[in-house]
Amino acid sequence: MTSKELVHAALDHQRIPRAPYAVDFTVLARAKARERLGEIVPPEGWMGDIVVSPVIKVEWGKRHPDGFYVDEFGVEYDRRIDIDIGIPKPIITRETLTDFIWPDPEAPDRFDVLADNLVKHPDKFQIMALDFSLYERAWSLRGLSSLLEDMVSDPDFVEALLDCILAFNLAVIDVGLSRFPEVDAVYFGDDYGTQTGVIMGAPLWRKYFKPRLAQQYAKVKKHGKKVFIHSCGAVSELFPDLIEIGVDCFNPFQPEVMDICAVKRFYSGRLSFWGGVSTQRLLPFGTIDEVQAEITRLIAMARDGGYIVAPAHAVPADADIENVAMMVKMLVDQVTAQ
After folding, report:
1. pLDDT (tens digit, 9 = 90+) per residue, 191-238?
2. Which residues of 45-72 are buried (b: 16+ CB within 10 A; e: fewer)?
């Protein structure tokens, strides 16, 4: 069974011969992992059964010599401290939205990484990723606190901004999936949660985001592909809504904010999950025995389908390298033991 077949079987909630897995790293963590584990850790991208190809040019981890990075929307990110993402400087106001020039969905190099990965990894599960897809794109353009305030004080502006982003996203999805039918799924990145709940509250999420997300997901489904979403935080109250509008797999499945075994069991057959290995507690502060016990438990849980083993986020720089090595070894070993 290829990686592609394995992940599809897991998403269909079938019992599978081994656990599908995917591991990504922050810039500093990758350097440490490659020093400790060698070439088993790729120089970039994910390791495991899944290949994720970004088609929105945020280019995590890249920066100019002065420590800054400008994305294709014209937003400047200060990456002098946070190398991976950085702090964006907002550029849109109510007055400038009408004249704002949006990127070209058919930009000549937009799908270069995707095209390359499809050739290099034909047997792996291929994901086309729209990072900072809707909410995150809106606050990177407008500013986080300003956008949240606008949701209450200036709803017409928020609706107009989100509709512009939606139009861009729908065009990218359509172009990408039309050109590359080999893609298996589309991934949308948006962090709707804090550690205690939905940041704008579920009612405002349903007002502003749910109907637009439904359009994005419907576009993916029209092409016959799976829908993956990423949202950090305690957002389990949104799971019924996400299922309703077509989500197939939820990431990152943070164990700090939900009982992952109970949630996985409750939504079995309706929603799959990807993540679950604690990057806040287990990998930085756990013991080797604790890591071994947890990965053993998650591998067993994955065998019933509906789950992809992975860290709850890209492995952070403060993760204990021996804990990371144990996790990687166990995931790789269960592949070779087939």
Report:
1. 999 999 999 999 999 999 999 999 999 999 999 999 999 999 999 999
2. bbbbbbbbbbbbebebbebeeeeebebe
**Residue from 96, 122, 273 nearest 183 by CA:** 122
Which stretch of DSSP H or E encloses residue 137? helix 135-142
C-alpha span between 253 and 235 (Å, rounded): 10
Question: What are the tens digits of pLDDT across the range 65-87?
Answer: 899 999 999 999 999 988 888 99
Instruction: Let me know: does 306 contact 264? Beta carbons within 8 Å.
Output: yes
CB 113 within 8 A of CB 53: yes
CA distances from 279 to 209, 256, 323 (A): 28, 9, 11
Instruction: Give the closest residue to 191 by CA, choosing from 259, 126, 238, 154.
Output: 238
Q: pTM of the predicted model, to two decimals?
A: 0.95
Which of 10, 39, 51 shows the shortest CA–CA distance to 180? 51
d(CA 22, CA 74): 31
Q: Which residues have C-beta within 8 Å of that of residue 77, sequence separation ≥ 6? A: 63, 68, 69, 70, 71, 85, 86, 87, 88, 89
Q: What ranges do the domains of the chain cover?
A: 3-336
Measured between alpha carbons, how far apart are the two ends of the chain, in Å? 10
Query: Of 140, 131, 87, nearest to 110 (Cα)?
Result: 131
Query: Distance (Å, rounded) from C-alpha 5 to C-alpha 338?
Result: 15
CATH number of this structure's domain 3-336, picked from the four choices 1.20.120.140, 3.40.50.1110, 3.40.640.10, 3.20.20.210: 3.20.20.210
Strands (E), the chain: 22-23, 47-48, 50-54, 68-70, 76-78, 87-89, 125-130, 185-189, 226-230, 249-251, 272-277, 307-311
Give the pairing of strands 47-48 and 22-23.
antiparallel
d(CA 54, CA 94): 29
